[in-house]
Design brief:
The chain is an alpha/beta fold. It has seven helices and 14 strands. The strands form three sheets. An eight-stranded mixed beta sheet has the order 4-1-9-10-11-12-13-14. Strands 3-2-7-8 form a four-stranded mixed beta sheet. Helix 5 links the parallel strand 11 and strand 12.
Amino acid sequence: MERLDVIGNISRDLTRYPDHRGGPQLGGAALFVSLAAAQAGYRAAPVCVLGTDLAHLPKAPGLDRLDWSARLQADGTSTAFDLDCDPQGELVAVGVDCGVAEGLTEHALRHVGLHPHNTYHVCCRRPLNVAAVFGRLAEHAADFSVDFFLPSAEEMIRAAAPWLPRASTLFVNAAEYRLLEAVIDCGTLAEVIVSDGPRPAVVRCFGRQVALAIPPPHPPREVTGAGDTLAGTYLARRSLGATATQALAEATAAAARFVASPPLPIPAPRRG
């Protein structure tokens, strides 16, 4: 693939931990997957809807490495997530204001129609209509990979199930993998990457484990976006010729560095 087009949200996040970590930060799976792919040496484009509050992102330092040509600029506020986590980073409660992302499905369908031969990664999050998007991708026999978000994973996995055997790669955490097993025969899935926080991550091809990597130990500062970082890195490295074992080792290392780093601040608009 020449470019990874990442369908998903870019958001303003507010995270809270019992030990007073967290705070406002830039978030969204489309952003984190795209940034990780770009940092791993691959061209990536978020297929997203930006509100007026984040209209300046394409010119922000560090974010200008992305290909922003697939974004839609819309009037209104961007998606906002309110995330309460336990000390280990497990989500306890999630609040969301979808904002302009209500238009993401229509934008994604239009983009796939205009670029049917691109390679896609679909971040299955509300408010995306995953059945409509996967139906359009299947109509064009497009190459696509998939990830989920635990609070909505059961709903999204069930909606996506008819198309999952067509996916090149699925990314799930251990809890999501159990939900996946309850809905579909995982032996029909070409490649599933199962992560489990600081515990070993594995690659399963048609139900058989083919690779394993143990993440380097890094004390977590912010875990939101770690799974997206793993996904973007893995997809990029595989596309550049790495084996599953090599790509998984690099992806888990990238995710470990991510959780040990400060959160991504929301950049202020430039004046003038």
